Hints:
Number of helices of chain A: 11
CATH class of the largest domain in chain A: Mainly Alpha
Strand content of chain A: under 5%
Mean pLDDT of chain A: 84
Number of strands of chain A: 0
Largest sheet of chain A: none
Oligomer: homodimer
Largest interface: A-B, 56 and 56 residues
Structural class of chain A: mainly alpha
Number of domains of chain A: 2
Shape of chain A: elongated
Order of helices and strands of chain A: HHHHHHHHHHH
Amino acid sequence: MSVTVIMVAPMTATVITVYDLGVGRWEPDARGRLGRAAMELYRERGFDSTTVAEIAERAGLTERTFFRYFADKREVLFGGSSELQEFLVSSVVGAPASLPPMEAIAWALSAAATEIFEERREFARERQAIVGANAELRERELIKLATLAAALAGALRERGVSEPAASLAAESGIAVFKIAFERWTSSTGEEQLSEFIRESMDELKVVTAGPMAAASGA
Amino acid sequence: MSVTVIMVAPMTATVITVYDLGVGRWEPDARGRLGRAAMELYRERGFDSTTVAEIAERAGLTERTFFRYFADKREVLFGGSSELQEFLVSSVVGAPASLPPMEAIAWALSAAATEIFEERREFARERQAIVGANAELRERELIKLATLAAALAGALRERGVSEPAASLAAESGIAVFKIAFERWTSSTGEEQLSEFIRESMDELKVVTAGPMAAASGA
Lengths: 218, 218
């Protein structure tokens, strides 16, 4: 399965359309060049201090070309969110029927790790540093994750899971993913994202396993 | 313990200051009147369509008085966030040393439910409906919850809990709180928030308890 999540979306379809409409000259790998130029500048100057004009200049292209591929400079970092969501939702819906809710989530997250993120570790690291350095981007990331959690709860309900189990598994699963992703991007070792996900899932089991007497302790 | 979380903060200190500075006439319960007027208008017209001038007029006060109590019209809904955070953090830090991470979180959430939220159910319901109807407010709520989760992870680390257990317990605990809070505000029965929290904590145990073989299933 080939799903483009982050930046280097297949350019063919878009470019052919643009070319057919005659609104621009064909530029080889324009999207990739713009994306790489943007990431360089976000790292060097910060996200807020970078303009689309500067990104286009660094890529040797025009602002108009930039806006053919990205709605704004934030989309360089968040362009793949809906594809990731579709991938995760269809993985949860299609996971073996025997899997309990949290395991269906774990299954989907591990599939995304292997098929989408693993080969983009360098990009993921850079992106994490850029997003982490900017309050507005951190907020956008939270909204993305909350939207993912809501979509995963819906996918679990499609599997017949009732509420609140569906939302609890989805929200906690996204918490696991967030923490595993942060550990993966900040790690200098060779451990794969899917291993961090498995470790965090196991750790969640450990921290939630205690007797719940405390909930009545107030 | 008396902690003001949402809207009806003790007015005495502020009002005395204002009076001493001679910048305004003393108005009985000005903060409470402004808050109630704001909530009425948000419900009637929506948050976006309500102006501070209209809130002040409905309360029989001036815009200037409004801005003595609230930085903006959003603060009517989010004014108590930092007090809630302080309450939860100190509850986690002060929870019995014997409690495992997730139970220390459950302890703090139950304390907040009983001591802060229970007597404000009507306000909480209205607030939930207003926040749920507005994308910007929903985002602000997510940011508030993420900030709470980060603070609770810090409180667990103060208790000697290592990472990633601290962040996993804190993030999952906030997921439990969010879902329990939504169930409580949308319920028409008499069940208390602390009971919804306990049920959701137990449910989280159930959904995470399965064997984690699925995490390697991708």
